[in-house]
Amino acid sequence: MGYQRPELHAQTALRGLAAMTVFIAHAGFYKLFPQSSFFERLYQVFFWHNVGVDLFFELSGFVLCYVYLAREFTWTEYFRARFARIYPLYLLGLLALFASKGVTLLKTGTMADDHFTWPQVTANFLLLQDWPLLPHFSSINWPTWSISVEIFLYIALFPLLYQVEAGLKFWPRLLLAGLPVMLLGGIYLSSPPWVDASISFLSPFRGILCFTSGFFACRLGLDRGFRGALPRGVEVVFLILTASSLLFEFPLNREAVVMVFPILVYIAAQQESLLTRLTAIPLLIWLGDLSYSIYVWHYPVLKTLQVALGLRKVHSWNMGEAPLSLRIAYIAASLIGVLGIAHLSHYYFERPVGNWLRKVGLSRLKNGPRPAPASQP
What value does the mean pLDDT of the chain take? Predict the structure, then answer.
């Protein structure tokens, strides 16, 4: 357990690829060229964004185990760090989306199909919209439903896993690394009727299963010092089949790939693996660093651009009918806008605000409460 933990650059790169896939899939660039069936088929390589969110959950469980096991910390420190990591940027993105709704109102004279209620707004500000056993409310910043689930995993699930893992032997840990994603993959592939009809149940369920899997995949790795890499030929075959299934649904359906995520993130933690070497690229590391900002900002930016450029009408899309120059402007502005704002947001808001909140908490824990001035009782 005294294993020296290096930076997990490959996992950072995976997170960046997943965030970019979610962004580009949601951008709907293929709708700009409805007459081109080839472009639409080509664009489908980005349609693994759904399981990309499951990969986020898997990585989160892995990384929290990687950071906090075998390390001295207090739960107050932990919860403050999780709050500092998630909430400030989430809140800024939510406020920005409300501002973008103002742009929609000025541009079209209507808020389109958005009908906000006070319970919905309250749940979104408290990040409770997708918690299990609570009423489900749609996320105003639509993709951030997963951030609501992530907060639940931080608050409720991680402390539970942290307490029980020490009493488990190798085989229960191995079972908990693989069985949750096997179950989720089975649900996806069987497509029972309640999957679509019960989003409020499935959303946190996905997070619980993938987070648990990632946590115990890391726990197994910590036991072994992340040794026991796959033979290079086996790893090559595994990576080719995984990438091919995600991008082209061959030989597996995209939904089935969730079953191999524990192996993927485990390989990404091995410093000598081929995956680590292939992803040790500054561009991918940069995208990984920006991944949370990309995820938070892409929806507000895309919706604002669609309205500002006149590419969105109330209850309908008219993107393919716009002039070619306008469609190209939307693609360029989306890529530059999302990545530019994410860069600025990450380096000038997300990191400094998060670091400041952590330092405030650590200084209070170390120094204790300040003594009251002599004039106070």
Answer: 87
Q: List the one residue out of 201, 126, 216 whose CA is nearest residue 162.
A: 216
The reply to whether 97 falls in a domain is yes
Residue 375 lies in a domain: no
Those residues with Cβ within 8 angstroms of residue 252's Cβ, 6 or more apart along the chain or in another chain: 241, 245
Q: Structural domain tally of the chain? A: 1
Task: Please report whether residue 377 resides in a domain.
Answer: no
Q: Determine the structural domain holding residue 153 and report its residue range.
A: 9-365
In Å, what is the CA distance from 48 to each residue of 70, 87, 99? 35, 26, 30
Q: Is the dihedral of CA 155, 157, 162, 164 positive or negative?
A: positive
pLDDT (tens digit per residue) in 351-375: 999 999 988 865 554 554 433 333 3
370 occurs within a structural domain: no
Q: In 3-state terms, the chain is what percent helix, strand and coil (to 5)?
A: 75, 0, 25
Please give the structure tokens belonging to residue 109: 């004279």
What does DSSP assign to residue 26? Answer: H
Cβ atoms 200, 130 nearer than 8 A: yes
